[in-house]
């Protein structure tokens, strides 16, 4: 990928209004929501570097701070899984480094102008990872972190799958296998516009069992959409079992290559490796980053376990989970 | 070792939850299926990573449980191939995935061939709650009842799930069974509380009259709509208006005779329909179509308003917000009779 | 070099075939699209190997024609992504593939996002003739009209295809345009032959009254159904029965006001609907729903019987065999008025 | 694949009744329908070897006769394309050797008992090749060849896509991308039954752009359905263009291998090579036979041309086509 211009200023720098939840119910245990672990590390709204590129550089230098952001995101995920309706814990935890790296270091986005025409677009095709996305959008400054206290609150916008009423969410997903086709559309539009903007689609591994993914993969490969990147959260588990125990996906890299993609395999919890894989120029083909992750990452007692998929955390479980994620991942 | 036997013995299918409350229709169905599969080796359970069968031991029927992964089109095609080879496949997925994602396979592979596939579709209506519009199924009744050969069933409680599923196994053609997610109130208990005499047993293909009144017919399908109709009948009675309440669990084929007779019995051509579905094409539409064919009738629909329900909240909250409530049914009935 | 200009000049969109007969709606649409794409660079034409654009030269708009191959789900998703990025995509496929194969993408990616995608669906109804049930679309109106935000249009001739497609481009949300396959008779010519005064021009979203009578309303959509209604009106007139004929080209949103006014004007609450669709959920259903909501009305549906049409024959033959005919409309009207 | 038992006798050996076309219209030019080129080469109904295996052996010896069958099938295809509604010419011509080899030499079927429980099942996923299937079923004795005069006759059963009212047709197809999932169902059923019966699914190459094909491919690969065979009619063209010009399918063999299949590549007009590829035992995986074919094969003036896809042959064109196919290929 050639070096790129910073995001063009084309929109008023104001935060879009969040639709007021009609009859918002406060989560019963709101008082118990975790305090920010390290608020100082988070970019303060109103105190932003002038250009996104500059900010990216600044954030990259402060690598240690992004580790804190990742911890904070995990805390927020735990908080949302302690809501009355629970949350998709495991597949959100495995996404944390992927989304933190993308939003804080890779994507050309500006939280104050979420509709900027030349922004990069992220689509969370594995929509059930929404709470990770919400948490990262909040830490990135799209909206106040406190809004997440209203996760799943009746009448509110924070659905268990990405909802466009939430600032920063590009398109709704949740039925698996839709995101890559949407991404092809975005990438085609960018090509028609003569824009260098990118589209990154994040997929689950179980999700790859959907044929619609391969329709889109084949189209992107054939059209040579080199501004399109697919990140596969290869945590090895789907809802009820290991992917290889249900319908095997291996040899996964071969599949993507045979469909016309360049493949990069990385440790999906290593932000440095992710950053490299997500920024290194491509060779005229779309790029699939197979990110080897651990479902439930950060909670050692459920890591790699299928029961981490969805959890409704009680008080004790939440406390335990918060302690675990604050300890950090090795 | 199969846990099917003991489990079935401990919790008879369709019975109340030992913990006290009613059981979710999909759990009732699962336990019954495990029991039936042990006895009938034509039955095959095809899963699509729903998690509904996690930890279930199919015992000697284990080779007839196949998790085909997250691929709903393939699921339907495989079911058709199995059915064409003499099996009776149960396909398990969510209602909207069956009705939209996999629809062409349902139409061409299953309905056109008139094969005995049972599509067991959970998360009907707004049961998915805060999972949002991608998981709501507010279109499925309209779609499924358009397909020739399809039988479309929406039980109103756990007990009816068991009975209707069992009865549906006798049918030679395909069945769409619309289930929910969480447990919903037990209908018999609700009727008992309301002091209404026992309703006739649920029979596939026949409207189930729940109570009789002389002024207006309330026709509903699915758990909360039927409860809303019953609640409305109570309130209407308080206002001196007699309401007949019909549980139209079989949406296709529609039991027009019973419906028509009920309307004729009131002497007033007014029906209020209640459903957890968009207003176009669902139960209200089926009732309007069928009655308008016979004689001029007013049919007022209580349904989820024509839009995507993109706010958080559980099924009951969303239904309340959408106005699928006893109060709305009362309003519409009163307006129509005015 | 672009052939769009000259072609458009030689054969004005919507005009008669220079060879004499009427032109197929899909050809009229294609020529018009090529013309419009040259002038409006938001328009993007997404193909799915339909062959409709073989040999077409898009000229300077060539980069806005993309053949995405035989993958209808991807087609809809790509269209949504393009529309979200400010484009107005036309997706081209057959009616049943849009309505069943790709339905979830239409629902979630396009309708939920309320995006200005135009789904141009050929082979509506039985237009595919002997291609058989896998290519017939007798469910599409029911399905598409169930989806929030969708506008559903079924033009009755080539001229209306051009007009309604052009008008639909103004809409901010999605449109489903149901076209046929071969050319069908020109409506204006048919009316002229029948000695009926000029009908008001076709307007998206408004019922088009074609003739007025005092006894019964005939409401139809699509080429042959509208012709059947007109033929029936002739025959009814001969029998001394006056029929109002409505061309309900926009099935959603339904122009209830005009419909209702027409019924009120006859003084008799009787409507016969005519459509190239299965009986459940389509135009007849929409009309029955809407009128039953307002006042008791009889609505009799003339539609393709509830079954797969698995015999060979062209569209007209199959419709005749299915009983979607002027004679059937006459019978139903007479029966209803008796 | 282990050696197999001949087809078990379990059903009355009577030909199913063909539903009487309601109001059958004779094709206008019926008198002009081609005469059988070499009727003697076709198996006479009522004069069948006792066992299918024996018949297969007999037919295999008479290889020259199968060449004649192929010519006859092409004649019949040309005849149907001369019907009032025309026909899918190119993709039927490319199928001829594939279907002739399958029905006359490979599949364990008995035309007198088309529903025999242990029969092999063929599904024509590229349903628009129906006229090739009808012609082969007729030459194989499922019904009199003369019935094909009624192709596309209004009210008749001979649709442009396989119709189950036609004896020998297993399941209707025509919307592309359905056949392989049906085949997985058949193969699973055979496995549950403990039967050695096979299921062969014939696909178009353009058809492989449908994601549903890859859902089924992945399931078959994962389940190790070694009684399932996919034959891909790799004629390089789809409806409007070359496959590689629309959405590329290459490297095609790699795709199938990566989805868990054993791949065999053959000349799809070489019956010997096809027979070998279709009968050689597999290694626990489903087998994909990529049959390199020529669209429109047998009509040199349209071979490999996209305009061969669909044709309505007039009198002159039919005569020319019949002369060409009678000349034989090479
Ligand atoms: C089309 C569709 N089918 C089924 C589901 C239900 N579902 C939600 S998450 C999930 C498992 C997804 O597995 P994977 O993609 O591996 O995600 P992760 O492991 O990251 O949670 C399933 C089956 C769905 N959301 N969409
Ligand atoms: C789902 C679906 N989309 C589109 C079509 C229309 N169609 C019929 S044949 C064809 C081309 C198929 O190409 P290929 O599979 O390569 O077949 P062949 O070259 O053998 O004719 C298309 C697009 C269809 N039948 N089904
Ligand atoms: Mg996973
Ligand atoms: Mg081909």
TrEMBL record, chains A, D:
Region listing for Disordered, in residue ranges: 1-48
Record's keyword terms, sorted = Transferase
| Entry keyword annotation includes Transferase | yes
Give all residue intervals belonging to the Transketolase N-terminal domain. Answer: 70-316
**Could you tell me which InterPro entries the record lists for this protein?**
THDP-binding (IPR029061), Transketolase_N (IPR005474)
Q: What class of enzyme is it?
A: transferase
Q: Please indicate if the UniProt record lists Repeat as a keyword.
A: no
A Pfam family: Transketolase_N
* Annotated GO MF terms: magnesium ion binding; transketolase activity
- Source domain of life is Bacteria
Q: What is its EC number?
A: 2.2.1.1
Where in the sequence does UniProt note compositional bias of the Low complexity kind?
1-16
Kindly provide the name given to this protein in its UniProt entry.
Transketolase, N-terminal section (Modular protein)
TrEMBL record, chains B, C:
Q: What keywords is this UniProt entry annotated with?
A: Thiamine pyrophosphate, Transferase
User: The organism sits in which domain of life?
Assistant: Bacteria
Cross-referenced InterPro entries: PDH/Transketolase, THDP-binding, Transketo_C/PFOR_II, Transketolase-like_Pyr-bd, Transketolase_C
Look up keyword Transferase and say if it applies.
yes
Q: Where is the signal peptide?
A: none
Please state every residue range assigned to the domain named Transketolase-like pyrimidine-binding.
23-186
Looking at the record, which segments are called Disordered? 1-22
What EC designation does it have?
Answer: 2.2.1.1
EC top class, as a word: transferase
Named cofactor requirement(s): thiamine diphosphate
Comp. bias regions, Low complexity: 1-21
CDD domains for the chain: TPP_PYR_DXS_TK_like
GO MF terms listed in the record are:
magnesium ion binding; transketolase activity
Q: Which PANTHER family match?
A: HYPOTHETICAL TRANSKETOLASE FAMILY PROTEIN, PYRUVATE DEHYDROGENASE E1 COMPONENT
Protein family membership: Belongs to the transketolase family.
* Name assigned to this protein: Transketolase, central region
- Protein source organism: Micromonospora lupini str. Lupac 08
């Amino acid at each position: 990928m050639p070096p790129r211009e910073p995001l063009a200023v084309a929109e008023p720098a104001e935060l879009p209004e969040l639709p007021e939840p009609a009859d918002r119910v406060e989560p019963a245990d709101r008082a118990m929501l975790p305090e920010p672990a390290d608020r100082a590390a988070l970019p303060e709204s109103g105190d932003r570097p002038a250009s996104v590129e500059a900010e990216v550089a600044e954030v990259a230098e402060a690598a240690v701070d992004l580790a804190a952001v990742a911890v904070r995101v995990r805390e927020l995920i735990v908080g949302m899984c302690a809501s009355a309706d629970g949350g998709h814990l495991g597949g959100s935890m495995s996404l944390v480094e992927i989304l933190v790296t993308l939003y804080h270091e890779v994507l050309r986005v500006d939280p104050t102008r979420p509709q900027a025409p030349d922004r990069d677009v992220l689509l969370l095709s594995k929509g059930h990872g929404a709470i990770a996305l919400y948490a990262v959008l909040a830490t990135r400054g799209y909206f106040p972190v406190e809004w997440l206290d209203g996760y799943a609150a009746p009448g509110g916008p924070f659905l268990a799958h990405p909802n466009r009423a939430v600032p920063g969410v590009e398109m709704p997903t949740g039925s698996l296998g839709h995101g890559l086709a949407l991404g092809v559309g975005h990438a085609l539009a960018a090509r028609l516009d003569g824009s260098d903007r990118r589209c990154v689609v994040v997929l689950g591994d179980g999700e790859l069992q959907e044929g619609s993914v391969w329709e889109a993969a084949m189209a992107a490969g054939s059209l040579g959409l080199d501004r399109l990147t697919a990140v596969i959260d290869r945590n090895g588990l789907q809802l009820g079992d290991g992917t290889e125990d249900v319908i095997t996906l291996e040899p996964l890299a071969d599949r993507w290559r045979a469909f016309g993609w360049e493949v990069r395999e990385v440790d999906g919890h290593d932000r440095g490796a992710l950053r490299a894989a997500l920024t290194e120029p491509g060779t005229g083909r779309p790029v699939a980053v197979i990110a080897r992750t651990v479902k439930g990452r950060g909670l050692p007692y459920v890591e790699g376990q299928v029961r981490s998929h969805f959890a409704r955390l009680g008080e004790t479980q939440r406390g335990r989970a918060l302690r675990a994620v604050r300890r950090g991942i090795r | 070792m199969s846990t099917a036997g003991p489990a079935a013995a401990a919790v008879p299918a369709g019975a109340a939850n030992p913990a006290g409350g009613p059981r979710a229709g999909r759990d009732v169905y699962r336990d019954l299926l495990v029991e039936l599969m042990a006895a009938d080796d034509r039955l095959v359970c095809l899963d699509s990573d729903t998690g509904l069968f996690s930890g279930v031991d199919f015992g000697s029927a284990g080779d007839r449980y196949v998790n085909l992964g997250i691929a709903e089109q393939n699921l339907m095609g495989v079911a058709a191939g199995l059915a064409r080879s003499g099996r009776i496949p149960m396909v398990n997925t969510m209602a909207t995935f069956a009705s939209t994602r996999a629809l062409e396979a349902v139409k061409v592979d299953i309905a056109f061939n008139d094969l005995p596939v049972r599509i067991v579709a959970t998360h009907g209506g707004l049961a998915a709650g805060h999972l949002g519009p991608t998981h709501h199924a507010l279109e499925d009744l309209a779609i499924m009842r358009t397909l020739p050969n399809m039988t479309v069933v929406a039980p109103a409680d756990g007990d009816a799930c068991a009975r209707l599923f069992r009865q549906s196994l006798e049918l030679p053609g395909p069945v769409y069974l619309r289930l929910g997610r969480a447990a919903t109130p037990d209908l018999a208990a609700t009727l008992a509380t309301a002091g209404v005499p026992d309703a006739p047993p649920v029979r596939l293909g026949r409207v189930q009259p729940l109570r009789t009144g002389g002024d207006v017919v309330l026709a509903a399908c699915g758990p909360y709509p039927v409860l809303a109709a019953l609640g409305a009948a109570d309130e209407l009675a308080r206002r001196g208006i007699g309401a007949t309440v019909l549980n139209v669990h079989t949406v296709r084929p529609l039991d027009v005779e019973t419906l028509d007779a009920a309307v004729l019995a009131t002497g007033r051509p007014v029906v209020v329909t209640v459903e957890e579905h968009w207003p176009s094409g669902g139960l209200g539409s089926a009732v309007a179509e069928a009655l308008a064919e016979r004689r001029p009738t007013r049919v007022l629909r209580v349904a989820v308003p024509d839009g995507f329900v993109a706010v958080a909240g559980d099924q009951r909250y969303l239904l309340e917000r959408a106005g699928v409530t006893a109060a709305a049914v009362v309003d519409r009935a009163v307006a129509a009779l005015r």
